[in-house]
Amino acid sequence: MADPTRKPPTLKTIAEITGLSLSTVSLSLRDGSRLKKETRDKIARAAAEVGYVPNRAGVRLRTGQTNVLTLVLSPAKNTIDYTRQMIEGIGAHLSGTKYHLNVIPDLQGATPEESVRYVLQNRTSDGIILTHTSARDPRVQMLIDADFPFVSHGRTEFYAAHAFHDFHAERYVEMAVERLIDRGRTRLVLVAEDDATTNFTKITGGFHRALAQRGMTGEVATETGILISTDTARAFGQTLAQRGDPFDAIISNNELATLALMGGMADKGQVLGRDYDLICRQTTDILPTLYPQIDTVAEDLVATGRELARLLIDRVSGVPADELQTLHEPEPLWRSG
């Protein structure tokens, strides 16, 4: 049973345990991103051991801040492990800082703006991370108008600058096109269903430009519904395999859909590496585990989560938005001969 007469631990308690100065402990728990990770972790462990809990009501009254960041998580269909990796990366960067993470899922049927509007109206956090952003995302417009700190996972087409971190999709597809052509493939198709995100625009534009630079053309398979489920993706793979002039090279942007598509190709006798080559964006180990010879281009979603958290903390701290725009460079993993 807890001793009711025992005084709650304070910053001084943590300073005595760690041997660090009171100002260092205070800075770490207030804005630890400016300290070494070892120092932040040491203070965080000590705080956890003694059960130190900051008085959030008092903090909010003194500073107007909540010490909470919000991740507005849009549903990611046919995506493997996206949510876990993203939250792991954000959490890793927030560890030892004053910030805690609040996750708000964008529920089906709700308008995209509802989650953002709730945070703005109730001031439940100091900043927002948006995922799956579109070119003219209404959530981005709302946050720009409110002058509220945020960072988006994905670029937009707004004239007003805002913080973002995005996968360099154009470079990914350029790498894939170059690799496939160098392997002697001539009939290329990009399988990327229009999901209304800016990433779709970037990847399709990059595909056509990369082919044009090599004096070639290709097709983009954007038929509605082809990647909506593994069943439709498998059926689409069967359709590709039965074409009179089948493609000999496929670029895909989604691991789960790619597995189903390859299954459909195999159903009709098409063999990877013999009849066609395929390159997919990789965010897990599932593709090379099942197909050790497959070429992929990797995106580290845990690193993406870390970067989004770093950018948002800087934005909350007042760093100009146009200085907080970064791209995640793709990593080619060529495994075929």
UniProtKB/TrEMBL annotation:
Domain HTH lacI-type residues, every copy: 9-63
UniProt KW DNA-binding keyword: yes
Domain of life: Bacteria
Keywords from the named record: DNA-binding, Transcription, Transcription regulation
Keyword Acetylation: no
Alphabetical list of SMART domains matching this protein: HTH_LACI (SM00354)
Pfam families (UniProt xref): LacI, Peripla_BP_3
One GO molecular-function entry: transcription cis-regulatory region binding
Classification via SUPFAM superfamilies: lambda repressor-like DNA-binding domains, Periplasmic binding protein-like I
Protein name: HTH lacI-type domain-containing protein
